[in-house]
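Data availability (excerpt). The following record was deposited with the supplementary files.
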Amino acid sequence: MAIGKRLKAAYSGIDRDKFYSLTDAVKAIKSGAVAKFDETIEIALNLGVDPRHADQMVRGVVELPHGTGKTVRVAVFAKGDKAEEARKAGADIVGADDLFEAVNGGTMDFDRCIATPDMMGLVGRLGKVLGPRGLMPNPKLGTVTVNVTEAIRAAKAGQVQFRVEKAGIIHAGIGKASFSEEKLQENVKAFVDAITKAKPQGAKGTYLKKVSLSSTMGPGLKLDVATIGA
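Predicted structure:
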């Protein structure tokens, strides 16, 4: 009952049909995030694309100025000196054939997977396991690289990968309810800016159709796109 009352209280001051300015939306969502844990602040964007067409795919990575507030566990496929470099850089799991066997067996206790180029012959065989979970290393996302130190740093610092879903929607966590309003606003602007810059050549008509913001347990608010500009 208590949870129901909290949700009712969160919804009570919300106009579901209104388009909120970024400032007002962040303020309302923070005040409504009353769960007993630090709720994630989530953004959802409806894009005017059809990802079934290759020239309308939206995919990329963005490093949020204030991180996501989430602890990211990083696995690195590497051997020799690069494996040692990964360990020193703070990777949570480092391996080669042993890591392959663990992942192939269903053990994936990590949020980001990085691989050195020489390991992709091995890692490529895990496509059916890593791909559906969005964990497959990709050079375009900076997760297939010889610079494992930088890749690990970026992942730990709050780098967010994004990819449009079948319905033309992208969603991601862009912070925590405990963040200040200013930090959340700056993270939202950075994320939307990255999506805008990733606009594919095949996109026709209105690209950024709808943007909404919510907390884990709270209602979603529609944003006035004009107020998001950096």
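Summary of structural features: The chain has a mean pLDDT of 91.
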